[in-house]
């Protein structure tokens, strides 16, 4: 539905949202970054894992993904742009997604860009 909204608002159909709920190394990396920054604590991660019967290893992709989703919200999609995309395209997509009530996160520093 979100993909269709973008296309209906004029975003080219060679731009798409990649849906992904598969835990990966990025979840472990993001968990570690969040703990190092003080945004989250290892104690709260371990308590969460104990409560839900998950491995409390910081290297567990599944545990990291579930904890981050619980604490920060669910990842809806990755934005995939063509290599030669116009520089105004990403700001347009961010504006549309924001108007629909979603937040766009910069994957390099995990901060909102809208």
From TrEMBL:
UniProt name for this protein: Uncharacterized protein
Source species of the chain: Verminephrobacter aporrectodeae subsp. tuberculatae
């Amino acid at each position: 539905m979100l993909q269709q909204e973008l296309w209906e608002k004029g975003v080219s159909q060679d731009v798409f949202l990649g849906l992904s709920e598969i835990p990966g190394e990025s979840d472990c990396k993001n968990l570690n970054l969040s703990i190092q920054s003080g945004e989250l604590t290892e104690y709260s991660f371990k308590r969460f894992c104990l409560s839900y019967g998950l491995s409390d290893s910081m290297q567990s992709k599944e545990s990291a993904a579930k904890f981050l989703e619980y604490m920060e919200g669910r990842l809806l999609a990755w934005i995939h742009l063509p290599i030669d995309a116009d520089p105004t395209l990403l700001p347009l997509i961010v504006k549309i997604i924001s108007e629909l009530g979603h937040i766009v996160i910069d994957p390099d520093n995990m901060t909102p860009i809208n």
